[in-house]
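ok so I'm stuck.
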Amino acid sequence: MNDRDLVALVDRLRALPAESEWLEFKRNYAEPQDIGEYLSALSNEACLRSQPRGYLVYGVDDDTHEVVGTQFDPYSATAKGNQDLLAWLGAYLQPNPGVDVHIVDHPAGRVVMLAVGPSRNRPTAFMGKAFCRTGNSKTAITNHPEKERALWTRGDDWSAELCPRATLADLDPEAIAKAREQFLIKHPAQASDLAGWDDLTFLNKARLLRSGEVTNTALLLLGRSEAATLLTPAVAKISWILKDAENGELDYEHLGPPFLLAGDRLLRRLRNLTVRALPSGTLFPQELTQYDPWVLREAIHNCIAHQDYRRHARVAVVEFPDRVLVTNAGAFLPGSVNTVIEQDAPQLLYRNPFLADAMVELNMIDTQGGGIKRMFETQRRRSFPLPDYDLETVGQVSVSISGRILDERYTRLLMEQPGLTLPQVMLLDRVQKGRPIERDEHKRLKAAGLVEGRYPNVIVSGTLARATGDVARHIRDRGLDKRYYLDLILALLNEHGPVGRREVDELLLPKLPDRLSPTQKRRRVHNLLQELRRSGQVANLGSRTEPKWVRADPASSKA
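replied:
not stuck anymore, here's the structure
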């Protein structure tokens, strides 16, 4: 655009009644980090609002829209490490939507305009974190999962793209034979037709090809291992890593296509030991495997379906002695696991729709909304801890599947309480594991008489503990009366005073509730000592850093 066009564009933007989600006015230069976050938000909002560009405009007042001028020079400005600002921004905007810089000699003053392209195929992130706007406020896009989900539907489906260098010869015969078996399980009524289909017809019917052409999906699910290079620069790998209890690596293997066979290959790798449990109503132990094969396969196949293959990352299956951790690159599009469980409906969004459809045809995943819920129900039925989904890392989903019954009697009876809903069991499962729950979740559980204690230090209620026969654990979690701890301190000082804080800690810390963290326990000891000091029962003859606690003289305290 020439100078006149740029001035006209600035005036059109100024004429808008207010800043919009894809437009931000600034009077003067902002911090480099702030600029990067704004460009991420404006790029994402431009996509959602079907705008060709998002605009960050310097030299215009955001209230009056008057041109006030700016001295900001993006070409000479520097960022962290004295790097050139524009190069630094381009390096950390991923995927880079493109930023056009315009210096506008407006009649009312100098204006600098950064025009950012709309995001495509996925949210635009800055330094690994994506942003959006609500009105004229910038915020992390994770606070608005509906926007994040919408951005994944506003672009091309990589899994549906044709791979021009690939032919049917690049597909694995064993995988094709397995695909026919799985297709027959999914569509038993088509058995007679399937027998007469050649491979080309079958692969078209199974939604792996497009008009006879090989897709990225076909290579992922059925491709020969060496055909993975045809997907470059995308990465198609599943890494199995065996670790010991101290997180030391013992063994590993990297698996490429065909992913249709990867689930069984990984199950043969995983050590699925036998454990013994006592089902209710019997005195005879029952032998169970650590992991339910269907649960493991479902977790792995979900990662394959939702992996962002353009992130150059691998699906990771990490095996520990007591759990398996499965991780894929890409945000959790439903927003939260609770949403999936409570709605119990077909998932509306897939990162790779073409791939997901093909996996449904081959009986690899379930799009009726029951896959994740069935994982939870299966673990509940087996009296094992429920799957743990970790969605805290931006752009990554991890699920941990426990292979160890934390407390056999407590877990089994808790899961078998007939009046508990699955959402309640999920929350109680977190309480049992010592994991945090939200304040409103605590209120719901407390109203139902299932937990007690002051938030966030929550424990299972005494009523439920009696129902599960786990009253001893309940007492350990709840702790004893405060008077008991105070008397212990006084007895220590009577017999061995003066004593330092270390001696007091050695006496009390092992007796405090197990649910408290080490820091919380030390704080509790501090509060107990201060209560005794304020009541005149003890005194500190040392300093704050090196205290010497003794029993106070009753006579002197009265004086």
